Amino acid sequence: MRVILEVTFPNQEFNAAVRDGSADKKLKRILAELKPEAIYFTARDGQRSAIIALDLPDPSSLPAVAEPWFLSFNAKVEVRPAMSLEDLASAGLDKLGKAYA
What is the pLDDT of residues 27-49, one digit of tens each? Predict the structure, then answer.
């Protein structure tokens, strides 16, 4: 299942990782393991953030996706299901629309 992972890094922890030179290494290690489809870094509510699209093979893999962020940066992690246009097209919206009209 494709998901959007939103990671928000607390300033204090991330600043410490930047200062001690470990931020880049930690980020690269986590992302190498996740193999995301796409990742964008941005700011959210005054904190560094990442928006990551990835395919979650099984719901039981969620801890392996979230824990590295928690343990490495004390980050906040939010996960949302996501669909491509093709996924949405095969969802049967027309049938549902008629059933619940």
Answer: 999 999 999 999 999 999 999 99
Burial 5-19 (b: 16+ CB within 10 A, else e): bbbbbeeeebeebee
The per-residue DSSP string of 19-30 comes to HHT-HHHHHHHH
How far apart (Å, rounded) are the C-alpha atoms in residues 80 and 70? 17
pTM, entire model: 0.86
- Mean pLDDT, rounded, for 41-70: 95
Reading the block at residue 80, the tokens are 């949302």
Residue 44 is encoded by which pair of tokens? 């959210």
Instruction: Please spell the DSSP secondary structure of 16-85, one letter per residue.
Output: HHHHHT-HHHHHHHHHHHH--SEEEEEEETTEEEEEEEEE-S-GGGHHHHHHHHHHHH--EEEEEE---H
Paired tokens of 32: 């190498």
